[in-house]
Amino acid sequence: MIDPTQKKPVFVYLRSAIIFTVVGLALGLALGWQSTGTISGAMTIFFICTVLAVLEISLSFDNAIVNANKLKEMSAVWQRRFLTWGIIIAVFGMRIVFPLLIVVIAANVGPIDAVIMAALQPDEYARIMHEAHLPIAAFGGTFLMMVALTFFFDHEKDIHWVEWLEHRMAKYATIKGVEIAFVLALALAFSRLLDGPERDVFVYSAIYGLLTFLLVEVLGGFLDKSQEATKAAAQGGLGAFLYLEVLDASFSFDGVIGAFALTQNLFVIAIGLGIGAMYVRSMTIMLVERGTLAEYRFLEHGAFYAILILSVIMYCQTLFHIPEVITGLGGAALIGVSLWSSIRWNRNENA
C-alpha cells in the first residue's frame, strides 16, 4: 500500500512523467518531420504537443486531487492496479480508443476505417468529433456535477471552506435525492435554450450521465461490500477502481474534444494528452504519499469546486465555445486559492 509517511523529493514522483514527456515530444518531432519533411513542420507539431500537454495538466489538477482522495481508501492491491492498469486505460483508452469509438458510432464505420480516416482524412475526422460534442458535454457535465454535489451534500461533512454555502448544503443533504433533483432541474433548464433535435439529444445524454453515476455508485458499493462477506482480498477496491476510471473518462471528454481546436491529427492529440495523463498519475501518487490532503484541509474543497465549475462550463459549451485555456486556468485558480486558505488556516492554528 502507498505509505503516506514516505515523503520523497518531488522530482522522484515526476521522474516517470518527465521520461514520458521526453519520449513523447521526440515522437512528436519525428511525426512532424515524417508528415511535412521540414524543420518548421516538425517544430510546429512539437509545439502543439507541448501546448496540449500543458492544457491537459492544467485541466487535471482537480482530477489528481479527487483520485488521491479515493485512492487512499483503496486496498494495496487495487492501489497498484489503478496506478498501472488505470494509466494504461487513461492514456490509450481515453486518448486513442475513445475518439476512434466516437467516429465508429457517429459515422457508422468500422474501427479500421476510423483509423484510416484519422490518418488520411483528419478534417473529416475532426468534423465528426465536433458534431459529437453536444452529447459528450451533456453526459460528462452531468456526471461531474453529480461528483461535485455528492461531496458537498453530505450531512457528515464537518469541514467547510465557504462556510455559509457549504453548511447549508450539508444541512439539506438529509433530504434524499436533493442533488439529483438539482442536476435534473439544471439540465432541463439548459435544454430549453436549445432547439429541435439538439434539445432531445441534450436531455437524453444528461440522463445517461446521471444513470451512469448512480450505477457506478451502486455497483461500487456492492462490489466493495462483498469484500466484507468473502475472503477474496482482490475484490476489495473494484468499485472504487471503476468509479475512478469513469471519473477520469469524464474529465477527459473536455480535453479530447478541445484538442481538435489545435490539431486534427489523432496521433498528435494522443501524444500531447498522454503526457498530461502521466503527470496526473504522478501528482496523484505524490498527494497520497506526502499526505497533502490531510495537511491542507481546504485543498479538496477547491478541487470539487473546480469540478462543479467545469461541469457548468461543459453545459455552457453546448451553447457557445469557451476556450479550454479559461477552463484550465479557472480550475487551477480555485485550487490555488484553496491551498492559500489552507496555509493561512494552519498558520492561525499554530499561532
Automatic annotation (TrEMBL):
Source organism, top-level taxon: Bacteria
TM spans (from-to): 12-33, 39-61, 82-112, 132-153, 173-190, 202-220, 257-281, 302-320, 326-343
Record's keyword terms, sorted: Membrane, Transmembrane, Transmembrane helix
Record's keyword annotation contains Metal-binding: no
NCBIfam families: PRK14013.2-2 (NF010616), PRK14013.2-6 (NF010620)
Name of the protein this chain belongs to: DUF475 domain-containing protein
Species the sequence originates in: Gemmobacter lanyuensis
